[in-house]
Prior knowledge:
Blueprint: H1 10-41, H2 48-61, H3 63-68, H4 75-93, H5 97-116, H6 118-123, H7 125-130, H8 139-163, E1 169-171, E2 174-176, E3 181-183, H9 191-208, H10 212-243, H11 251-279
Antiparallel strand pairs: 1-2, 2-3
Amino acid sequence: MNxxxxxxxxQPLLWATSLLIGSxxxxxWRVIAHLVHDWANDGNYSHGFLIVPLSLYFVWERRERLRRxxxxxxxxxxxxxxxxxxxxxxxxMGAELFLTRISIVGVLAGGIAFLFGWQMLRVLALPVGFLxxxxxxxxxxxNQIAFPLQLLASQVGETALRTLSIPVLREGNVIVLANxxxxxxxxxxxxRSLISLLTLGIVYGYFVDTRxxxxxxxxxSTIPIAIAxxxxxxxxxxxxxxxxxxxxxxxxxxxFSGWLMFVAAFCMLFVVARLFIRFAPxxxxxxxxxxxxxxxx
Length: 297
């Protein structure tokens, strides 16, 4: 059996890659453990478990392009790594989870550029950038988004109930009916379905069309779709509470309506995506293997 000789420059690169991976695991194991804990315990980010496998799939899908990219390490990548480590340190000192987590993506991006070059990072831009979706939004920004969504869902629910000639009075995010009151709490603001549907829209758009404009349009369409579906859920809960009783707004029905509206939202996303694919300018085409990057020898 013949043993293929190793490239002279492969040994230092292998050592450097192993050192970077080991250092990364040593620095970030606590951060990653807390991140996984949030995925498991916060329903707003339970989709985080799917992000890493999908990102790895995007890397695997680019395997032919990666084989053809020449390895040209860049010292500027080390600057990105050091800057990201500074962000990690700032997050640890200030007990700011978001900074410690966002630095993961920076270290990965900088490490790829440092070890393999910027061309390699360009090929892996989507898999690396996709990891941002696994990071929970900072509480300050989350609250700034959630409360307006609560009010908007309340307004949509009130309008729908008035259209159905159901007596209703709205006070902020509280909908007062004849026999009960419904509070559109933070958990019912729709931000959970918005985040999950946005992730789904990005993945779905990636697989159904190769045009960047269509992919972006499909992803952005998830925002009004999520808002509309949540407003309909609030209205449906109000209708059930009016005709059946307060118990219809709690327990199984409340949980089931959430799942039902998410399925309805995905159906709306499917229809909107079909319209974008059909009427968007440029030739409509499904996902094809991306062109190979020409590399000078």
